[in-house]
Design goal:
264 residues, alpha/beta, Rossmann fold, seven-stranded parallel β-sheet, binds nicotinamide-adenine-dinucleotide
Length: 264
């Protein structure tokens, strides 16, 4: 029996079989959870539907996190199928592509800043609030973040402050929901080639640098990130909340990379 047997997990953010959310969904399914998925638009529904079917799920709910109406309707739509939810996976981010390159100071617009905070950070607390009436005691929520929240990195730009807000939100949400036994954590994943990552300037070079500089000397996979998210949402992690766990081959602990990683 898997360590998520008898748990119900709502997964957001599956866009393709390369999505981090897909790695999470696979790990949770393997560990025995029942899954429901959200899709952001009618156009993307068939893609999510096809992937969900691979994990024995036909429970699909619309959720564009920019839409207050979708958030309002989400609990009612979910309740038609499930009385409660044990696990909520938030794996959503967006920033306008033209802001993910060049100078942060010169390229950041008011609209781009607002939008990236809204879709990438506010959406997590909005999701928790919408689902709160269905959250079982000892439910667990998890989101995906990146080192660009803590350190300045090339091209990540406006997403850095968005991830910083998201991580801070994890702590406030954990503080708020802890008395009900509900836990909130984040996984800070190393760079992985996904659709969202393709929008970040110089991403290929970031991947190479990461692999050369990290203690494990390689990049991580969605499976590795998924396994940690599954663990964090399981009873095995009952004592962990408000935490940001790095799954990045150890890249974040490095002060100076092995000199082989630096071009002469
Ligand atoms: P992805 O493109 O597969 O997933 C991003 C998801 O965000 C998509 O499913 C997309 O539909 C969804 N989304 C965007 N706007 C939305 C909206 N308005 N409403 C609902 N959904 C919306 O890419 P990914 O890399 O798997 O990204 C998932 C999460 O992981 C993001 O938070 C990302 O910042 C984070 N992350 C990614 C990496 C990486 O290198 N790929 C590293 C660390 C963290």
């Amino acid at each position: 029996m898997g360590f998520l047997a008898n748990k119900k997990a709502l997964i957001t953010g599956v866009a393709s079989n390369r999505s981090i959310a897909w790695g999470v969904a696979q790990a949770m399914h393997r560990e025995g959870a029942d899954l429901a998925f959200t899709y952001p638009s009618d156009k993307l529904r068939p893609r999510v539907e096809k992937l969900a079917a691979e994990l024995d799920s036909s429970l699909l709910l619309p959720l564009d996190v920019g839409s207050d109406d979708d958030f309002e309707q989400l609990p009612g739509r979910l309740r038609e199928h499930w009385q409660n939810v044990d696990i909520v996976v938030h794996s959503i981010a967006f920033a306008p592509q033209e802001e993910l390159k060049g100078s942060y100071v010169d390229n950041t617009t008011r609209d781009g800043f607002r939008l990236s905070q809204d879709i990438s950070a506010f959406s997590f607390v909005a999701l928790a609030r919408a689902l709160r009436p269905l959250l079982r005691e000892e439910a667990a929520l998890v989101t995906m973040t990146y080192l660009g929240s803590e350190r300045a990195l090339p091209s990540y730009n406006v997403m850095g402050p968005a991830k910083a807000a998201l991580e801070s939100s994890v702590r406030y949400m954990a503080y708020d929901l802890g008395p009900q036994g509900i836990r909130v954590n984040a996984v800070s994943a190393g760079p992985i080639k996904t659709l969202a990552a393709a929008g970040i300037g110089s991403f290929r070079r970031m991947l190479d640098y990461n692999a050369r500089s990290a203690p494990l000397q390689r990049n991580v996979t969605t499976e590795e990130v998924g396994n940690v998210a599954a663990f964090l949402c399981s009873d095995l992690a009952r004592g962990i909340t408000g935490e940001v766990v790095h799954v990045d081959s150890g890249f974040h602990i490095v002060g100076l990379p092995g000199l082989d990683a630096i071009e002469e």
